[in-house]
Amino acid sequence: MTGAAGRPALLVLRALGLGDLLAGVPALRALRRGFPDHELVLAAPRELGPPAALTGCVDRLLPAAGRDRAVPDALPRAARRPRLAVNLHGRGPASHHLLLGVEPEELWGFRHPSVPEVAGPAWTPYEHERTRWCRLLRWYGLTADPDDVRIAPPAGPGRPPWPGAVVLHPGAQAAARRWPVERFAAVAREVGAAGHEVVVTAGPGEERSARAVAESAGLPPSAVLGGDGGGVPFGELCALIGAARCVVVGDTGLAHLATALGTPSVVLFGPVSPELWGPPPGGRHIALWHPGADRDRGPSGARRAATSRPGDPHAGRPDPRLLRITVDEVVSAVFTAVAEPGRPGRLPAKVAGP
Fold first, then answer.
1. Which pLDDT tens digit goes with each residue over 305-327?
2. Of 79, 158, 321, 338, which sits most exposed with the smallest number of CB within 10 A?
């Protein structure tokens, strides 16, 4: 596999979702710095082309996706024989075998007993997602910073939509990570009453819940963006999030987008700990999580693995830990996140408006 203009090809497999791509930005940046003369080709779902381009690391996207986050069945023939293939998708063996099938000169990945050809480091189950992939690349000799997550929003004409709004996103791929609609509506009412403009975003198939939040909170229909037609276009979504005062969201891709754009956020965690998927320390990102009594058993080894991922992130009902987060907590976190020196988070109502 030869890259553009005869450059050697570096094939990276991360055929997952938006949040996974953004959590992989520090590793992609390390690869870009380590192989400046290679064409970096990312094997990922086609719809991730725009965010992949925004990372500034990816030269070309190779469409690849598996069902329900599984390893793709195959890679396009254009992926064959890269100079180097890097598995940022999983621990193996299926993802290793997929990359070995394109006959790379070299394959980097985590060590797995079923794939002796790959001599990487051992997999650690309770490691933060960004740290995990940076550790992999450090084992192979690259310098990688897990907090190197920022991206620049795409340039767009004119004023961004709803500048300075508090953005609520009640949707998530699985019910386990969906905080109740009525609680989002209560947050919208309180934040709106404090003088903030509030908008609600919806991904594909999420319009009903977004409109329920808006209607219950007394917001106009125009305050709901996206929905059954396919969600908010990515460029518009970046402009919205980049200009927002705060984003309130579950453990989804939009939370990672807020982190990447440097927008204050309040992220609601349930079945999975923020120790594994939360925003970097520092900054104005607040992660809310109530693991319960099991958390007291200790932070190391298998116990830590169990307490960091105590629930099923793909379950069909809201996780109990997510339901322990109260409306008052979220409202207080929003006011903390939006507060600036000399400017309180609870604004007088008369300043409401874009």
1. 556 878 899 899 999 999 999 99
2. 158
Residue whose C-alpha is closest to residue 187's, from 228, 246, 264 = 246
Q: How many CB atoms lie within 10 A of CB 94?
A: 17
Burial 273-294 (b: 16+ CB within 10 A, else e): bbbbbbbbeebbbbbbbebeee
CATH code, domain with 186: 3.40.50.2000
Could you tell me if 45 and 192 lie in one domain? no
- Predicted confidence at residue 297, as pLDDT, reads 45
The span from the CA of 229 to the CA of 221, in Å, is 15
DSSP assigned state of 202:
E
C-alpha to C-alpha distances, 179 to 44, 229, 324, 327, nearest whole angstrom: 28, 23, 10, 10
Taking 60 as the threshold, does the pLDDT of residue 341 lie above it?
A: no
Q: Which domain holds residue 194?
A: 166-351
Residue count (the chain): 354
Rama region for 92: left / alpha / beta (φ>0; ψ in -120 to 50; rest)? left
Strand 166-169's sheet: what is its strand order?
224-226, 198-202, 166-169, 246-250, 265-268, 285-288
pLDDT at 94 over 60: yes
Same domain, 36 and 172: no
- Under the banding of pLDDT at 50, 70 and 90, the label for residue 4 is low
Higher pLDDT, 216 or 296: 216
Please report how the helices 207-217 and 181-193 are oriented relative to each other, as an axis angle in degrees rounded to 10.
40
Full DSSP string of 26-95: HHHHHHHHH-TTSEEEEEE-GGGHHHHHHTT--SEEEE---GGGPPPS---GGGSS-SEEEE-S-SSSHH
Q: Read off the pLDDT band of 292 (50, 70, 90).
A: confident
